[in-house]
Specification:
The chain is mainly α. It folds into 2 domains: 106 residues; 134 residues, no CATH class. 58% of the residues lie in helices and 0% in strands. The protein has 14 helices and no strands. The longest helix is centred in the first third of the chain and has 26 residues. The radius of gyration is 20 Å and the shape is globular. It starts with 6 loop residues before the first helix and ends in a 12-residue tail after the last helix.
Length: 313
């Protein structure tokens, strides 16, 4: 059910979708009212998630959100706290934790909290981790069984990261993800320098800089298309870097591609992924929707196209 305040924009979006469907590309996937309404609700869910990030930046945040010894630990809110206090490297690092581990529906941020907080020892903050990533991998190896719940405490990755491994030594495990992320930031260990290089290489264009960083993150182990997209969009939403996605990055996507094919009636899968991306860029311009909103809403809509269901985690 749409919020009353969303209805004027919803009406404008319906008009924009109908114009796009009649004048540019047909949208048979939302020809039936129930499918159109389900997609609209997913769009507003995505918009509200973006608004949530904006709200937490504007409201007071308890210091316990950055305290890995507290049940209130939240890597996203912790990132905002560090950003407010001028520690941007720690803010970026916590966004990485936010994306890499995800929030589990049952155990919340417990896994991210216990790794970041080194199970109650000296936290693996950015200065410590970036100075000695091998020590971080050694610590993961020594504590892997505990982190997997041998101490009786449940800890799990979020739904989007449910296939991620905690393994310290394999090329696609958490140990490799940490080390290659630190390598990606570079020898200066400065995220700002990394972002500044991207903006210089792209003449300050926020969308080209996003793409430059997105492509460069191919070197980060286990950070595939979705993780890179989520990390960089969150960095942009938090204002840590002036970047934004210029496309939905269909290459390597699964759910968003299925949603786009359903929307455009591409049952025979004749459209290539770049063609789908191109159409979605046009649709975003016509409807005034950002690429993150389209990517997220299509991914969730295709899971239940006839009836709105909220999907989180």
């Amino acid at each position: 059910m749409l919020r009353p305040k969303d209805r004027p924009l919803a009406s404008a979006l319906v008009d924009a979708l109908e114009r796009f469907s009649s004048k540019r590309y047909p949208l048979p996937g939302i020809a039936r009212p129930q499918r159109r309404d389900a997609l609209l609700e997913q769009i507003f869910e995505s918009l509200h998630r973006i608004e949530y990030v904006q709200r937490i930046r504007e409201r007071p945040i308890s210091g316990n959100r950055a305290n890995s010894s507290s049940d209130l630990f939240d890597p996203l809110k912790a990132a905002v706290l560090f950003q407010i206090h001028g520690d941007l490297d720690e803010a970026f690092w916590l966004v990485f934790f936010f994306v890499h581990f995800g929030k589990n529906a049952r155990t919340g941020w417990r896994l991210a909290r216990d790794v970041y907080g080194a199970l109650g020892s000296s936290p693996w903050n950015w200065p410590r981790a970036s100075r000695d990533p091998h020590a971080l991998r050694d610590w993961l190896a020594s504590n892997q069984l505990t982190l997997q719940g041998r101490d009786g405490v449940e800890r799990h990755f979020g739904n989007h990261r449910k296939y991620q491994s905690l393994d310290a030594g394999t090329p696609t495990g958490t140990g490799a993800a940490f080390e290659t992320y630190i390598d990606w930031v570079g020898p200066t260990h400065s995220h700002q320098t990394r972002v500044r290089n991207a903006l210089e290489e792209t003449e300050g264009d926020p969308r080209r800089a996003f793409d430059w960083l997105y492509q460069s993150m191919d070197s980060v182990s286990s950070f595939g298309r979705t993780a890179r997209f989520d990390y960089l969009t969150m960095v942009g939403k938090l204002g840590l870097a002036q970047i934004e996605p210029g496309s939905t990055y269909m290459q390597g996507a699964t759910g968003p591609v299925s949603g786009a094919r359903l929307l455009f009636g591409d049952n025979q899968k004749e459209l290539t992924r770049p063609e789908l991306d191109s159409r979605l860029i046009e649709l975003g311009r016509a409807a005034g929707l950002g690429m993150q909103v389209l990517e997220d809403s299509l991914c969730n809509w295709q899971k239940s196209p006839d009836r709105f269901k909220p999907f989180r985690g």
